[in-house]
Amino acid sequence: MKPSQPTGATDGEPVRADEESVLADLTGMLAALLDEYGCLDDVEVRMETTFNRDLELESIDLVTLAGLLEERYGDRVNFAEFLAGMEFDEIIELTVGRLVEHVVQSLKVAEAG
After folding, report:
1. Torsion of the alpha carbons at 49, 18, 12 and 7, rounded to the nearest 10
2. How many Å separate Cα 63 from the centre of its chain?
3. What is the rounded CA–CA span in Å between residue 1 and residue 89?
4. Residue 3 C-beta-side C-alpha neighbours within 13 Å
5. Ordered DSSP codes for 46-70
6. Which has more confidence, 17 or 100?
7. From CA 35, how far away is CA 57, in angstroms rounded?
């Protein structure tokens, strides 16, 4: 039996594999992460926002983000594997949009498989 929409969220919401939905999910995750530092008001998350320069996230923050992505999408999105395929400079310049594209692609591959 195959579900019509895969779920991965703890609240049972269906996971949609489109850029708008993934960006909204990721924005929520980043808001929670940035709220811990009290700098949520200073940042607008867009596709071109960089994790390092704009959001000033450090490597430990990316580990936390990886956990949030796993909570939402399960094993269909492997953030660590995504980063492992990059050079250091690519990680430093990583944008929200590039991660959104990776998540959408990963979800589509998982749905097709």
Report:
1. -120
2. 11
3. 44
4. 11
5. -TT-BTTTTT---HHHHHHHHHHHH
6. 100
7. 12
- Token pair for residue 80? 């660590």
User: What is the spatial distance between Cα 53 and Cα 56, in angstroms, rounded to a whole number?
Assistant: 5
Find the mean pLDDT for residues 6-35. 79
Residue 37 pLDDT: 73
Mean pLDDT of the region 54-61: 91
3-state secondary structure of 16: coil
pTM of the model: 0.84
Q: Which two tokens stand for residue 30?
A: 């980043």
Distant-in-sequence, close-in-space partners of 54: CB < 8 Å, separation ≥ 6? 43
Rounded-to-integer distance, Cα 113 and Cα 106, Å:
11
Give the Å distances, CA to CA, from 111 to 7, 8, 39, 41: 11, 12, 36, 36
What's the mean pLDDT in 101-112? Answer: 95
